[in-house]
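Need the bound structure for adenosine-5'-triphosphate, inputs here:
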Amino acid sequence: MAPIVSIRDLTKTYANGFKALKGVNLDIERGEILALLGPNGAGKTTLISIVCGIVNPSGGEVLVDGHDVVKDFRVTRSLIGLVPQELTTDQFETVWNTVRFSRGLHGCKPDPVYIEKILRELSLWDKRDNMMRQLSGGMKRRVLIAKALAYEPRILFLDEPTAGVDVNLRKDMWKVVERLRAAGVTIILTTHYIEEAEEIADRVGVINGGELLLVEDKNTLMKKLGRKQLILELAEPIDTVPTGLADLGLELNGSRNRLVYDYDADKEHAIAAVLSRMVKEGIHFRDLSTRQSSLEDIFVALVGEKA
Ligand SMILES: Nc1ncnc2c1ncn2[C@@H]1O[C@H](COP(=O)(O)OP(=O)(O)OP(=O)(O)O)[C@@H](O)[C@H]1O
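Answer from helper R.:
Posting the output first, comments after.
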C-alpha cells in the first residue's frame, strides 16, 4: 500500500536565509508509530509544520494520502491532527467547549459521547467546566491532545507531547497512543526523551542540521548500531592482557581485576570464542555480565559524528 505521507526532496529556507531543511525524503507507512529524534533546532518542528500545512516549503513535495499539502491543503489538513508544542487556546473558554469546537471546526458532526470519552481518557472530565486559564500547564497540554483527537484524525502529529509534563500525563498519553494505534491511526512524534521512542515507536528517524540522518525499524537499528559489552570480573588480578586475549580485543578496564570485550549486538557467538580463549590462557573469572547500548547511546553517537 502507498505510504500515507510521502516527503520528497523537501527544503525550507526561512526569510532570514536560514536553511532549516536541506532535502528531506521520508515515507511514513499507514498505522505506524514513527519517532523523530533530534537535538534543539534540528528541524523537527519545521518538518511537521510543513506536512500540517502551517509553514510553506521552499522546495520539494509532500503528499498526504496522495494529496499535495500545498495545493490540496483543505483535504490534507482534515486528515491530520496536530498537538503543537506551544499552547494555542482561548484562555476564557471552557475545556468542554474548546474540545467540542475543535471537532466542529474540522467539519465533524457533534458527538458529545465521543468528546466525553476523550476527556475521561485524558483525566480531564472533572475539569470540563473549568476555563482554560484555570488549568495547570500539564492540564492545558492534555486539552491540546483532546483538541487534536476531537476530530478523529487519520494521522496524528505530536510535537514533543511530554516535554515538561509529569509521569501521569506521560502514562495517559501512551495509553491513548496505544488505543489510536489499535484503531489504525498513524502517529508521528518528536521527542527529546529517547526512552519514549524506545518504548513506543515502530521506527525511529534521526534528524540533525536539517537533514534526516536515518530512518530505521527500531529493533533493526538497535541490532545494527547497538554495541554490547562483556565484562569479566577476574578471580586474580593481572598486569597485562595475554596476547591471545588482546588479539580478540579484550582490554583491562579501570582495574587489574576487570576485562572488558566490546562487540556488535548481532555477534553474540563471539562470546564463546572469548570464553574458550580465557580457559586456554588459564585466566579464571568469578563473575560475568553484559551491557547493551541504548537508543540514547546510538543517538548520541550518530549526532555527535555529524556535529
Ligand atoms: N520563522 C523562522 N525564521 C527563521 N528561522 C527559523 C524560524 N523558525 C525556525 N527557525 C530556525 O530553524 C531551525 C529549526 O527549527 P525547528 O523549530 O524546526 O527545530 P526543532 O528540531 O523543532 O527544535 P526544538 O527541538 O528546539 O523544538 C532552528 O535553527 C530555528 O532557529
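Comments: The pocket of adenosine-5'-triphosphate is lined by residues 14, 16, 18, 20, 38, 40-46 (CB under 6 Å). The mean pLDDT is 88.
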